[in-house]
Each structure stands twice: as structure tokens, then as C-alpha cells.
Amino acid sequence: MNKTWIVAEREFNSRVKKKTFLLSTILFPLVIFGFYGLMIYFSVKGNEDLNIGIADHANLFNGKLDNDKEVNFIFMNDASAKSLEEKVTKKEISGYVYVPENYNLLSSTDTINVIYSKTIGLISQERIGRKINKVIEQKRLLSLNISQSQLDSARRTAAVEFKPLSGEADKNKAGLAYAVGFISGFLIYIILFIYGTMVMRGVTEEKTSRIAEVIVSSVKPFQLMMGKIIGIGAVGLLQFIIWILLGTATMALLPLLMGGGDASAIQNVPGAGGGMAAQGSGAMAVILGNLSQINWMLLLPCFLFYFLGGYLLYSSLFAAVGSAVNEDPQEAQSLLLPITMPIIFAIVIMTKAVNDPTSGLAVFGSLFPLTSPVVMMARIAHGVPDGVSALELILSMVILVAGFMCTTWLAGKIYRTGILMYGKKPTWKEMVKWAFRKN
Amino acid sequence: MNILEVKHLKKYFATQKAVDDISFTLAPGSIFGMLGPNGAGKTTLIRMLTGITFPDEGEILLNGRPFDPVKDMVQIGYMPEEKGLYKKMKIGEQALYLARLKGLGKLDAMEKTRQWFKRFEMESWWNKKVEDLSKGMQQKLQFVTTVSHAPKLIILDEPLSGLDPVNADLIKNEIFRLAQEGASIIFSTHRMKEVEEICDHIILVNKGIKVLDGTVKAIKQQYKENLFTIGLDQLPATVSSSAFEVVKSDNDQLLLKVNEGHNSNEVLQHFLSTGATITSFSEQLPSLHDIFIRVVNDTPTARQFEKITA
After folding, report:
1. CA of B168, closest CA in chain A: separation in Å?
2. A50 pLDDT exceeds 90?
3. How far is residue B124's CA from residue B91's CA, in Å, rounded to a whole number?
């Protein structure tokens, strides 16, 4: 056992002491969050400001149309279509709406044309159309003698609330549990891949550099494999602890930063700007409040357990593949397929389970050791016993432990043969034969 | 007591009898040559001796007790034919690591490694990486990591290949020194010249079977063809004797083959009686190279794959 630790120590030190370790530990989440941040930013952000001139000769809008951040309506009721066109060509306005005097509100054939110079994006087109339609709809109702308040009362939605049989109703919790479950399941999925391939590459490196033969004359192949798995697992754990600390620090600092921002915003720009900022920090507070509703004392230890369990289960399989391949990394691809399939399958089940944590598929996925690390996280986020019963949770954990003991044992036997075998790449059939033969 | 006793060792693979009933013994302080053509089963044999694989049948005794790989690893140093080290790891750390894996404590490993680095004048390498070293330097480092934990049994597979004469001599002298200090050395190589220089005792393995076993001297005696060279100041025009035949004549030397039932004295008597002056006379023993080729050629060189039912 002692020698396993010496191997693990080397694996850990050789990775953590590298200059790239800190860099990648800090850069990786930045890149991931930056990437998602950019995606959200671009999808939320529409086009630049659009100034739309309106020549309302039918006095349809009474000089009133809601402006927003992107679309700005400018009334120029006296302007002729020709002068508006000139303005568009001079780029004073992006486009114009010309409502002729004889525009018939109730006609189904009359159209309102929006004439533009530079292309107006699909989303902006939709906005403009909606705004115009809203006014026209009101006008039509009025012409039919239906008042806005009548319409509103007819349209009022019935309040439908979801209340569990026991406990309090919690509107935000389901959505949040969904998000937390999805993110933690996805994180485990990524971890399995990143650290699994790290183990695989390490094993292949030892094999191709031929140091494996020297080392297995000093330690048992199983000790070497376990040392590598433990060492790299410790690297992963350290990385995660750094991320959790960074995350908590950001969480703690965020309200402070937001609060400070608000105060100055309100002072400097009274009115709209201040209101917006206040709204923003309000939403933030709601999210933070909701986050505190999640049972972190359950979620975090479970996350660590399934992270380690899943890692131990899969990394030994990755090690077995690594021991089978030679110099050519291409060889690993076909051997990896049977390993990556269940992980991808787990993600598919997880997306279902996060919606419906007690469905048959979710229960199966959270018990089956090859998928449970990913799927169970989705169920745990819903809490015990709402998402998963305590019995199922314990059963899943026991099966996972048994599962990784089983895979490491089998993988150890494949590894022992593979690491000293040069030449032809073995098939899975041969590897299974190695796994089950006696010495 | 013999440090190593190998008894009826067998290892069969699916299509080959890699090692088929091999036995030999190794005395303390001896340098033992293990010879054989490619694919003879030497690596498989060595891997069983180092505890990397296990024999199907047979017994290995180390110091008279059954070999227990886990416990006895510290007594064995193994340098495989395919040399390998971590390319990105610092040399000093690497040597320490390998010594610790053998079972040495941190301080002990440090002390012994430092000693060896000093002996081989490698102290300045400590913080370099293996990828910075030349092939010969890597080999030296590999040798140091093999012996730094003071093993009793040292197994070297082609330790001198790729070394320049200076470094080869350095390692060779270390091998002699280690043997003198009581370590036993198994030396596997294809180069017969090295074997003749270094080994006391050899075995020759072919097709998984031990075909020769003995001291270098005894084996040469066994394979001698009763050839003698005699140097004369003046070659006689014709030589005819019932005791021997001339195989080759060359300037002032004759290569003679003594016929069965006769001995070398009769050769000398014959030439003394002719009145010629003898300048030299020596027995011509076969080189290990010739013996190797003869023995191996008696069996087909390339091993055939066969179905083993064991």
C-alpha cells in the first residue's frame, strides 16, 4: 500500500508543481463562464438603436408609441413620404412608417409598410410589429365599443398554484433545483472526461516511454495503476476545492459590488438608470435567496462522493484502455467508444431526470453505477425525499462503491497485461479475456 | 548457497512455449550470461525472475527461499532492454523516486543516489530533465537507477548497447566491482565479445529451451574441434601424418585438425622430426560467436507459431 502512495505523490506533484496548473485552474472556469456569458450577452443583446420615423396621417397612434432601448419612434406627422425617404437615404433615420390618411382600421387588406434602408433584424422587426399591432388592436376594440378594462378583465389569467401534499409551496425551488441539478450533473460528466483522459494519457505515456517495465519490477501493476488514479484524483479534488473557494468568494463579494454600484448609479443618474440598477440587484437578491434554499449540506458532500465514485469507476477503465494502446493516439478512439457511450447515455438520462426526478428511467439511471454519478446529482438537487428517497440514495452509493471496486479489479488485470504488451493493438474481446483469466 | 535457483520453469502463451522447462543456478558474486537469439524466451524468463509475470510451472528460489516478488523486489535490480525514463521529470527526483519505489526510505534513497551520481560524475545533472540527455547519458542514468538500491541480484538486458567505448568500459568496470562486492549479475546480450569479456558462466536459450549451460571455458572445451595452429619458420612442401590433417596453410602458419585417437603431442613430434623450427603452437578454441551460430542453426531460427494445449 505504501508504494501506491509514493506513486500517487509523484503523479500529484508532477502535475501540481507545473506552472500551467494554477494557470489552467483559474483560466478554465473563466473561459467556460466567459463563453457562456458571451453567449447569453449576444442572445439578449439585439441590434443597435433604430430610429423609426412615423408619418401618421391617419392619426392612428395619437403621437404615442412606446419606445424602448432599441427602437425609437419619432413622430413626424407633417412629413411627406418623399421627405422621409430623403431622411432615410441621409441616414438620419433607419426607416419610416407612412400611414396614409385613408388607412382603414378594420380592413383586412390594408397594410402598414415599414420602409428601411439598412436591414432590420428579425427580432427588431418583431418588436416593431408588435408595438404597432398593440395600438391597432386597442383602436379596433374601441371601435367595437370594448374598453381596455373590459378586455383586461376578460384576459386575466386564473391563478394556478402548485402545492405539494406536505410542506410549503415553493415556486422558485423547482426551477432552481432544475438548474442546480443540471449544472452539477454536467460538471461530473465533464470531470469524468477530463480526468479520465488524463489517467489514460499518463498510462500510455508510461507504456510508450517503456518506463512501465522498470516500475513494475518494483511495484505491482495494480499499485502503479491505483497510485496514478489516486494522484490524478487528488489533483482534480484540489482543483475543485480551489473552484469552490473562488465561487464562494465571488458569491460573497457580488452583493457588495452590486450594492456599491447601485448607490453611485442612483446618485449620478436619477430616474431610469437608478431604477434599472435597483431592479437588477433585486433579481440578484432573489437568486441568492433561492440559492440558500438548496440544501448545500446534502448537495456538496453528495457531489464529492459521486465525483470520486464516478472518477474511480471510470478512470480505471480509461487506464485499461491507455495500457492497451501504443504510440498512436488514434488507436485509443475505437477502444474508448464502449466507455464514452454510457457517460453520454448518462447525460441523456440526466436531462430527463432533472425534470422528473422520480420517473422509472431516472431511478434506473441513478442506481446503475455507470450512469449514477451524473444522474443522481440531478435527483439530489430536488432534495430528499422529494427527488430521491434516502433508501435509494444509500443503495445507489453502495452500488457505486461495489461498481468501482469491480471495474478497478477487472481493469487492473487488463492493465497488467496491456502495459507490457507491445505491437498489435488488442481488441476489446482480447482485453475481456485478459480481465477474466487467472494470472 | 546459490543466490538464485531456477527449477523447471515453464511459461506457455497461447501460441508459443515461451519458456519450456528451464533450470539453472546462480552463485553469489558471479556474472552470468544469458544468451539466445531474438524471441528465444529470454525476456519472458527475465520477467519471471523480476516478478513482473508469474511462471505457469516451476519454482524460483532466492537465497534458498521461494521467490516472493513483493518482499524480494528490493533485492533485485532490473534494467530492461527497452530503456525508459520519464522524459519530463527532473533526473535527481527520478532517481530518488525509483529508489523509493524499491523500498528505500527517503533519506536512505537520497544518500545512495547521491553516492552513485558522484561516482559517475553526474552531479550536475540533478536538476536537468531526461529529455536534455543524450542516449548514452540516459543509459548511464538508467544503470544508476538500476543499482542504486544495492540489490543482491542485478539483471541487465543489453546494458552496453549504444554506449561509446569509454562509457561502456565505465559500466563494465562497475559490473566487475559489483560482482566483487558480492552481487550476482545476470547479463543478457547478443554480443558474444562482451560475454567472453565479462561472463563466468553462461546459458544459451533457444526456442524456450536451455541448450547450453556451463562456464565459458567448459563450453569452449565442449565445442572444440581439435584445431591447432602451429607457426614454423619454414613451411614444409608437403605435410602428411596419420595424426592430423592440414585444414589451412597461411604464410608461416598451419591450421591443423588432430584426428581422433591422437593428441597434440604427436603433432609436435611430427614437426620436430622434420627438423623445422617451431615458432608457436596453440590450441584453436571456437569463439562463443561460432558456438552460438552452430547451436542456433541446428534448430530453425524463426520460431513457428504453434497451438499449445497446456
Report:
1. 21
2. no
3. 10
Of residues B162 and B169, which shows the higher confidence score? B169
Nearest to A217 among B52, B85, B142 (CB): B52
A10 vs B contacts (CB less than 8 Å): 97
Query: ω into residue A357 within 30 of 0, thus cis?
Result: no
Contact A6 B100 (CB under 8 A): yes
- B124 Cβ contact partners less than 8 Å away, ≥ 6 residues apart: none
A131 and A244 housed in the same domain? no
Complex-level ipTM: 0.81
The three cell numbers locating residue A395:
443503495
Top pLDDT among A173 and A78 is at A78
| d(C-alpha A334, C-alpha A33), whole Å | 32
Same domain, B215 and B251: no
User: What percentage of chain B carries pLDDT values higher than 90?
Assistant: 24
The verdict on residue A418 lying in a domain is yes
How close is the nearest chain A Cα to the Cα of B42, in Å?
Answer: 15
Residue A219 forms contact with B (CB below 8 Å): yes
Residue A385 lies in a domain: yes
Contact B101 A3 (CB under 8 A): yes
pTM for this predicted structure: 0.75
Q: Which position has the grid cell 484540489? A: A238
Number of domains forming the structure of chain B: 2
Tell me: do A204 and A253 sit in the same domain: yes
Q: Tell me what pLDDT residue A271 has.
A: 42
Residue A217 cell numbers, joined: 519490477
pLDDT score of A290: 64
Report whether pLDDT(A188) > 50: yes
Domain of B235, in residue numbers: 225-284
